[in-house]
Protein: Thioredoxin reductase
Amino acid sequence: MFDAAIIGGSFAGLSAALQLARASRSVLILDEGRPRNRMSLAAHGVPGWDGVPPTDILARFRADLAKYPTISFMDTRAEEISGGLDAFTVATETRNPVHARRIILAHGVQDVLPDLPGLAEAWGRTVLHCPYCHGYEVKGRPLAVRASGPMAVHQAQMLRADWSDDVTLLTNGVEGVDALASAGIRVDHREPLRLVTGDGIRVCFQDGPDAEFAAIFTAPEIDLTGSPAGRLGVGLSEGPMGPFVRTGPMQQTDVPGVFAAGDLATPMWNVNYAVGDGARAGAGCHQSLLFPGFIPALEKEAA
Structure:
């Protein structure tokens, strides 16, 4: 029986584990080795690690944890979580059940990328999701935003304000965007057929000439269906790109003994947020072990 099982061993999960390790609590981290930002060449805006590949940062995090004897790793996928407070069971892909008093969900989310040929291959490199994370590296060059919802206009305005004077919105059928022209943003209603990666990225259209950009920004939809969080039935809120786990001040969920941190527990995705939320989840988990009832679960929302 571990004090805590942490589902997911990326930035949030490892940060949570570190807090518990320093309290000498027994922790098992279950991780299948597919961090969400594994396609990115570098993490940006991370103090002390700006421009460093995410995999290198995670390797350092793991090395930090290796010196704590109460931390264990299992390289496998968590399939199902059953039981309850002080008696959870995690069924794994390798069929080895894990028993733990507390659960920290940190397994991230599943990106649902637009169905456009060539986009998946460029994801994280020249097709990007966040100006704060990647905008500086392509500033001053032609940029595009592929609309996937209401946030596209917001993103185009941000890029035009501080990253580039040359911004195009690919409307993808979204209406009511022509007013952007007054802000110096081009609007292209043509339907893209495919993306071709080169020095930047080329958009091939059904009608008219191709267009070249340094990068295209787009917001993927996310899905928690079938994930450990989804199967456990923790309460969700709806964000602009999809659902995320509802949490309290110490990252507690509405299931007693279950905490959540990282991309699955926020509508804003950033390494810094994941590390901070993970630390809070680890501390909250530890205090709930020491003082039962001190950190109550959130109330269930009315159906």
The CA atoms of residues 43 and 51 lie 5 Å apart.
